[in-house]
Specification:
The protein is mainly beta. About 15% of the residues lie in helices and about 40% in strands. The chain has two helices and six strands. A six-stranded antiparallel beta sheet has the order 1-2-3-4-5-6, covered by helices on one side. A hairpin with a 5-residue loop joins strand 5 and strand 6. The protein is globular, with a radius of gyration of 12 Å. The relative contact order is 0.22.
Length: about 90
């Protein structure tokens, strides 16, 4: 099982309470960035707290992360990340 809450925490984002925590293939969620430095570890730089973070599970072992913000400047970032066998994100090398 891949936990939406665990993914949000790894990315430094706050997820709104959900009825079902499992992120199945084809599902997505939107969260609010709280710790930009955590997101930077996965290759998405220049975002600030408050940015929107959208996470989608696009394959059994792949997660697509897209971020965007309007203030202090308009910016966006994207990354496709791998999941390990425990459902944790793997930072790109």
């Amino acid at each position: 099982m891949v936990s939406a809450k665990a993914l949000a925490e790894q990315l430094g984002a706050k997820l709104q309470p959900r009825e079902d925590d499992e992120l199945r293939i084809g599902m997505s969620f939107t969260a609010v960035l709280q710790s930009p430095e955590k997101l930077e570890a996965f290759g998405i730089k220049g975002m600030h707290a408050g940015a929107r973070v959208t996470v989608a599970r696009i394959a059994p072992d792949k997660i697509r992360v897209e971020t965007d913000e309007m203030t202090p400047v308009e910016a966006n970032g994207k990354a496709t990340l791998k999941l390990d066998e425990k459902g944790a994100l793997v930072a790109p090398k």
